[in-house]
C-alpha cells in the first residue's frame, strides 16, 4: 500500500465525477415510512415517526435492515481501495497475541491468538513444566461455526479444580454459564441460562453467586430490564432451585446487583446500585449460619467496594468525601463509614488500586497517563514502580501468595506489552512483546491542552508520523467519549496503524464526563451540564483546525455508545465543522433511551425526559434524533450498530439514520451499516472487526476526497 495519500483535485462527490463516485443525488435510500406516533412530555407533544423501527422482531424492521445494508455495502464496494485497506488490516492484525499467565491449582493458564483467529484460545501447562508444554484448554472458536460465540468470563475455585465460564452468543449481553471439572474438562450439571451483567463468584467448591434479571416479556434484546437480582447456585442442583440472595422486592429494587466472596471465603460482599454511579454496600459473614447482611454504607451518593481483607480487617476503596478515591480500613464487626480509617489517603490524582503478592499497587492517573506506587499492608510506601514509558498500565493483580505478578503497558504507538514483575525486588522484565508489522519509531504522540468554551483546560493526545508539516491538509480522526466516569488513557489500536500509515492523524480528547480527573470531572459533564461535553469536543476540533493539523474538510469525528451520542450531538450542533461523522452503537434518542433494556440505569449521567419539564427540555435540546433539521447539509455519515446490541438497542441508530436520510441536504451520503450476529462490541470476531474497520476507513478517506491510497 502506498504511504502517501493522493487527494482528488476537487472533492469528487458530484454526479459528473468518474470512478463511480456516489452522492446524495444519486443514492436512492430505502423507504422509511412515517407513522403518526406522538408522545406527550408534560405539556409538550413530540412526534416519533419512526417508532415502528423499535420493534426488532417485526418483518418490516427486518426488511428495512436488509435494504439499508444492501445500499451501504453497494456503496462501500465501489470504493476502489476498500479491498486493499482490508488486506493491509489483515496483514498487520496477523501477529501472535498472548495474555498474562495466571495460576489456578496445579496449572498455569494463559490466552493466545495466533493472529487472525476469531476468538483467543485458552491454554494451560503444569506449574512445574515449561510454557512450551502448554496444551489447549478451551477453544472458543469451536463454540460456533462463524466465531460469533465468545468467552465472556472465567472463574475458578480457589483450588483450581472447578471452573465456571460464561459465553456470549452473537454479542448479546445475555450469558450462559457452564461448569467444568477443570482436570477432565467434563461438564458438571446443567448450563445456567439467562444471566446478564454478572460475574461468577465461588463459595468454596459448593456453588457460586451470579446476578441476572427476570427474562423480559417481549423482545429479550430490547425490552426493559429493571430489577437485578443476586442468586446462589448450589452445585448439582437445577437452576430452578437457585436461591435468591438479594433483590426481588419493591423495597430492594436495584438495576445492578453483584456479589463476590473474599479470597479466604469468609465474607460475601454485595453491591447494589440504582444507576451507573453510586452504590449501597453490604457484608455477610459466611462462617456463621443464618448471619444477616450488615450495611457498610446504605446511601447511593458514592462509589465504594471492598478490595481486600486481612481476617476481619476490610480494605475499602471509595470516593466518599474523596473525589479522587482513597483506601480506608475498618473492622467487619462495625464496618460503617464513621469507623473508617484512612489507609492510602486521597491525592490530587485519581486512584485505581489493585492487590497481589501481599502488596497494594496504587495506579494514579496523571493527566490521563499512569503512575504506580507499591504499598505494604501497613500502608507504608515500598517504592514507585519504574514503568517502561509514558502510557497506560493494567494488571499488578494476583493472589496474595503469588511470587510474581504481571502487568501490561501500552500507548498510542506501543502495542500492548506484558511485563513480569518481582514485587519483592521491584524488578520488571519483558514477558511478551508483540511482533507486529508496524514501525512504532516512525510515529509520535504529543499531549496538548486546549481551552473549551467556558475556559476549562482539556487534555488531548495527538498521534501522527514524525516530521509532518502542519499545513491543514492531513486527514484526521478525532475520537471521544465523555461520560460514565470512563477515562480514555493511551492505548494501542491495531486498526489505527493503517490509518496512521496512510498519513492520518489520530486525536483523542479527554472530555468532561469522563473520569480522568475524578468525580468532579465526571459530574461536570452530566445531566444539565452535558453540553460541556459537546463543547469540549467541538473545541478539540477547532483546535486541530486552528493549529493546522487538519481542516474541516479533512476531519472525521468518531465515538461509540455514549461516544456515539457525542458524535450525534456534535454533528447536529456543528455540521460545518467536520467532513465525516461516525457514530457507533450510539445513544441517539435521549427522550426514550431509558425505556429500553437497562437504559434507566444511565439516569445518573443523563437524567430522563420524565424527571421534570426542565430536564425534558434540556434533553430535547441536544438529543441527536430530535435536532436533525430539514435542509441542513450534514457531514458524510456512516452509522454503525449491531443487530444483537441489547445494551444500546439498534433502534437508536435505525431511527437516527432514517431521520437523517429524510432531511439531509447537499451531496454527502447518509448510510447505516448493521452488523449481523453482533452486539455492543464485546466478543466480536476478528473477521468482522477487520471488515468493519476497512469499511469505516474506506468511507472516511473517500468522503474526504481521496481517489486512491
From TrEMBL:
InterPro entries: AB_hydrolase_fold, Pept_S9_AS, Pept_S9A_N, Peptidase_S9_cat, Peptidase_S9A, Prolyl_oligopep/macrocyclase. Residues 30-433 form the Peptidase S9A N-terminal domain. One of its GO terms (biological process) is proteolysis. Its EC number is 3.4.21.26. Pfam families: Peptidase_S9, Peptidase_S9_N. Residues 490-704 form the Peptidase S9 prolyl oligopeptidase catalytic domain. Coiled coil: none annotated. It is found in: Periplasm. GO terms for cellular component: cytosol; periplasmic space. Signal peptide: none annotated. Belongs to the peptidase S9A family. This is prolyl oligopeptidase.
